[in-house]
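Acetyltransferase (GNAT) family protein: structure, please.
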Amino acid sequence: MTLRRYTRHDDFHALHMLLHQAFAHMEGRIDPPSSMTRLTPDGLRGMADECEIWVLEQRDQPIACMILTPEDGNLYLGKLAVSHPHRAQGHARDLIHHAEDRCRALRLAGLTLETRIELTENHSAFSSLGFRTIGSTAHPGYDHPTSLTMFKPVTTQELHS
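Here you go.
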């Protein structure tokens, strides 16, 4: 397996399919619907110029990914996804360790992420990886929280490599 950063010159169609399949279980569970419904391969390609899109590949096919964006002194971890056949093998944990290493390299304080209120299994998974809930947000037009914000401080300890 290879972990590499995608650039605008990569083929984003397979990555787009991985994301849609990985996030499909949320359809009908979360309100409002996921931003995945609006994301396109060209949209991902455009994001590669401003964000770090890291992809774990097996035989040149994406099996897991994450998008990292420096934001307010932290590194925002978005669109963490692992393909169904490759789940429960530690890939998400390995990606988060890489995100911690990137956070250190960029000299940022920690990792942040948002997870939907309804996805309680994600709350537990991220908590077990060292994240803690630091707040909640509501999508535009909602008078109640729709997402939790979670944070994991990153120390200057050795890199995970």
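Notes: The CA atoms of residues 88 and 139 lie 30 Å apart.
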